[in-house]
Specification:
The complex is a heterodimer of chains A (about 120) and B (about 110). By secondary structure, chain A is mainly beta. Chain A has strands at about 5, 10, 20-25, 35-40, 50-55, 60, 70-75, 80-85, 95-100, 110, 115-120. Chain B is about 0% helix and about 50% strand. The chains are: A mainly beta (about 120), B mainly beta (about 110).
Chain lengths: ~120, ~110
């Protein structure tokens, strides 16, 4: 079973850059069936997919973030990361990393425990 | 973007009840539809993939059906641990999207 762990600052100032890292503690980011995703959930609200990275470096993003998000993979450290620039209070959310298992029904079958990031001065 | 509309947004039910949650997609997603359960303070957990394929370790009282644009998640014989919020998700096309959620509460 793949195990994921988010890390990074829990407080970010408005207009600055949010940076989070997801460590794949069990499993490998180079597994060819896997895409590595970030999902966020504002307090009391639903889930929003942010984007994915494949181990080759291929990425895809939700247009709702208006090009502010960047996801990258570090295969040597078995990690992948998220950066969101020019944050506002609307970016306050629990951020989850997840594995998108790209076979059969293509579910998100492994998730990190989630990390609350608050945007505030 | 493919919109997923879940109904109801919330419901109250009793232990032992049969509960049906529906998810309607704004366009044909074949069977690229997954269901998740989320409890407060926890990450979502996948229950069902490909509309009707039960994930390992998920009790058989959960079942899923549908294809195209209309899907259902059924919980038969509702148990205390099933009170949670349920989300559908489409993985047919980018951007991947989730339904708005259905909160199942104790009556």
């Amino acid at each position: 079973q793949v195990q994921l762990q988010e890390s990074g600052p829990g407080l970010v100032k408005p207009s600055e850059t949010l940076s989070l890292t997801c460590t794949v503690a069990v499993g490998s980011v180079t597994n060819p069936t896997d895409y590595w995703c970030w999902v966020r959930q504002p307090p009391g609200k639903g889930l929003e997919w942010i984007g994915y990275v494949y181990h080759s470096g291929k990425t895809n993003y939700n247009p709702s973030l208006q090009s502010r998000a960047t996801i990258s993979a570090d295969t040597s450290r078995n990690q992948f990361s998220l950066k969101v620039t020019s944050v506002t209070a609307a970016d306050t959310a629990v951020y989850y990393c997840a594995r998108w298992y790209y076979v059969s029904g293509r579910p998100f079958d492994s998730w990190g425990q989630g990390m609350l990031v608050t945007v505030s001065s | 973007d493919i919109q997923l509309t879940q109904s109801p947004s919330s419901l109250s039910a009793s232990v032992g009840d049969r509960v049906t949650i529906t998810c309607r997609a704004s366009q044909n997603i074949i069977t690229y539809l997954n269901w998740y359960q989320q409890k407060p303070g926890k990450a979502p957990k996948v229950l069902m993939s490909a509309a009707s394929s039960l994930q390992g370790g998920v009790p058989s009282r959960f079942s899923g059906s549908g294809s195209g644009t209309d899907f259902s998640l059924i919980i038969s014989n509702l148990q205390p641990e099933d009170f949670a919020t349920y989300y559908c998700q489409q993985t047919y096309s980018i951007p991947l999207t989730f339904g708005g959620g259905t909160k199942v509460e104790i009556k």
